[in-house]
Specification:
189 residues, alpha+beta
Length: 189
């Protein structure tokens, strides 16, 4: 394995939208990040990943409005929190780009669903590593509101949303993570 990729892997972090600095991400960079996702491993070449990209300020504002109204409609009046609604709706507008991570199901007779979810997860990891290599912060969120947004996202039969991938440049990219020693997670035979 190339040392450069190991360094990118170690530097990959969840950088949350509140830490983004509003610098735009070039369209070509977003396309290259999605191209990296397209090369994820997948069983029987099903290529189950699908993406809905919210790149423009208008589309991110529309997503923000959708999340705010979906939140309000999903909770009772006594459980409604303006603070929670604001928190949910801020993330898209704080981001330079938001990508809905979706999956196209191939059917039970082709491969099990968990394998297609794993393939989509690998695609997201490729996106995350590509963002890290480009100096872009990113974060995969799975808010219940977006997991039930098939109509809003324009999803077709057999498709479902697995979350939102927030992206933006950040001045906090050098935060180092921690992991337990790998030796504690290995059983040699």
């Amino acid at each position: 394995m190339n040392q450069d990729i190991r360094e990118v892997i170690r530097k990959r972090r969840s950088i949350f939208p509140a830490a983004y600095n509003q610098k735009p991400i070039a369209h070509e960079v977003i396309v290259s990040i999605l191209e990296a996702a397209n090369w994820a491993p997948n069983h029987k070449k099903t290529q189950p990943w699908r993406f809905v990209v919210f790149e423009s300020a208008e589309s991110r504002q529309d997503l923000s409005n959708y999340l705010a109204s979906a939140y309000k409609a999903s909770v009772s009046e006594e459980k409604f929190s303006e603070i929670q609604q604001k928190k949910i709706s801020e993330k898209p507008v704080q981001s330079a780009c938001v990508i809905a991570i979706c999956m196209q199901r191939s059917g039970e007779d082709v491969i099990p669903e968990w394998e297609e979810i794993a393939a989509v997860s690998c695609a997201v990891q490729n996106m995350w590593l590509s963002c890290t290599a480009e100096g872009i912060g990113s974060f995969w969120a799975t808010p219940g509101l977006i997991l039930k947004a098939d109509a809003y996202l324009g999803l077709q039969e057999g498709q479902r949303c697995l979350g939102l991938f927030y992206m933006g440049f950040s001045d906090q990219m050098d935060i180092l993570g921690q992991r337990d020693d790998i030796a504690t997670k290995i059983s040699w035979r």
